[in-house]
Design goal:
The structure is a single chain. The chain is of the alpha+beta class. The chain folds into three domains: 7-52, Uridine Diphospho-n-acetylenolpyruvylglucosamine Reductase, domain 2; 57-172, Uridine Diphospho-n-acetylenolpyruvylglucosamine Reductase, domain 3 (2-Layer Sandwich), CATH 3.30.465; 181-285, Enolase-like, domain 1, CATH 3.30.390. It has eleven helices and 14 strands. The protein has helices at residues 14-22, 36-41, 78-83, 85-90, 92-98, 104-109, 112-118, 125-131, 227-231, 240-247, 264-285; strands at residues 7-10, 27-30, 49-52, 62-64, 70-73, 135-139, 144-148, 153-155, 158-159, 166-172, 180-187, 194-205, 208-217, 224-225. The strands form four sheets. It has a five-stranded antiparallel sheet. The protein is globular and about 60 Å long. The model has no long low-confidence stretch (mean pLDDT 96). The protein binds flavin-adenine dinucleotide. Flavin-adenine dinucleotide binds at residues 28-36, 38, 74, 101-102, 106, 109-111, 113-115, 117-118, 120, 123-125, 166-167, 192-193.
Length: 288
């Protein structure tokens, strides 16, 4: 379908974007367009002006942070993340997730900041960011703030970002020494979107699990930490029995959603399977 008429403008720089967001004018940010343009074409959304933020150097690329870990600029595309040596060295889990997002065209255009802002309940990057203890950094014309990914996502397509704020970067801290991470998903065959997906990061010390982060995507109203699973892992022996028992709590405290592809009971069962597989793979990669 043809979208309703709108204006298009390429932003002159970061200050231009922040100034535009500070006004009452109906400005919508355009990053890779891989979520927004389908919405416009289906006329599920209408915009006044599309402000293209795709060519602002400060929002782009991957850097090492002085505090440790890496920061990924909001307009860095999936393919740039896949090819970046810093991501490969510091956050191999991200590469594993990003490699499975969409197809090559989607990965060439789609950006990490766009996916985080859009907050699709099945967005693959969200559980990975939760398991990696990522931080989302935001700027407005008058403020800067950064907060944990855990708490940023409030529901389907809803985050704590204010309308005058721009996501500027996503920060991934250094993992505990020897930690292993893994990603597992069961996808809807036609679209490739996850029915349920799990990201896990485990560290093991003296045969016991010393650090556990587990998160689910696709199952609930938004990506969410599986805190009951984490609680069933920490300080326990890093054995297959522990992992299997913990995975059975995958959806505890999570309102599992059903749709025409998978009802809530099936999604619950898939969630347990992907969590168990992710835990097993993360354990195999963790030292100790
Ligand atoms: C065919 C197809 C298959 C796909 N498959 C998958 C998949 O398997 N897994 C998956 O996770 N995703 C998938 N996607 C979605 C894809 O990952 C998109 O890249 C992502 O959802 C949005 O990123 P974008 O840069 O295109 O954002 P856009 O579409 O440009 O923007 C999305 C929203 O975020 C806002 N926004 C963008 N950047 C910022 C910012 N820096 N600060 C504040 N707000 C901002 C925009 O205003 C808009 O509201 C698929 C998309 C398509 C078209």
């Amino acid at each position: 379908m043809i979208p309703a008429a709108f204006d298009y403008r390429r932003a002159d720089g970061l200050d231009d974007v922040l100034a535009a967001l500070a006004t009452d004018a109906p400005v919508t940010l355009l990053a890779g367009g891989q979520s927004l343009l389908p919405l416009l074409k289906l006329r599920l959304a209408e915009v006044g002006t599309l402000l293209d933020i795709g060519r602002i150097p400060e929002l782009h690329g991957v850097r090492v942070r002085d505090e440790g870990g890496i920061a990924i600029g909001a307009t860095t595309t999936w393919n740039e993340i896949l090819e970046d040596p810093l991501v490969a060295a510091h956050a191999p889990l991200l590469r594993q997730v990003v490699a499975g997002i969409g197809d090559v065209q989607v990965r060439n255009r789609g950006t990490i900041g766009g996916s985080v802002a859009h907050a699709d309940p099945a967005a693959d990057i969200v559980p990975a960011l939760l398991a990696l203890d990522a931080t989302i950094a935001l700027r407005s014309a008058t403020s800067r703030r950064a907060g944990p990914a855990d708490g940023f996502f409030r529901g389907p397509f809803e985050t704590v970002r204010r309308s005058d704020e721009l996501i500027v970067e996503i920060r991934i801290p250094a993992l505990p020494a020897g930690a292993g991470g893994a990603w597992e998903a069961v996808s809807q065959p036609a679209s490739g979107w996850s029915i349920a997906a799990a990201a896990a990061v485990l560290a093991v010390s003296d045969g016991r699990i010393s650090h556990a982060r587990v998160a689910l995507g696709g199952a609930g109203e938004c990506g969410v930490r599986a805190k009951a699973v984490e609680a069933a892992l920490v300080d326990r022996p890093a054995t297959p029995e522990t992992l299997t028992a913990a995975a059975s709590a995958a959806t505890e405290g999570i309102a599992v959603q059903g749709d025409l592809h998978a009802d809530a009971a099936y999604r619950t069962s898939v969630a347990r399977v992907v969590v168990r597989r992710a835990l097993e793979a993360a354990r195999a990669r963790a030292a100790g």
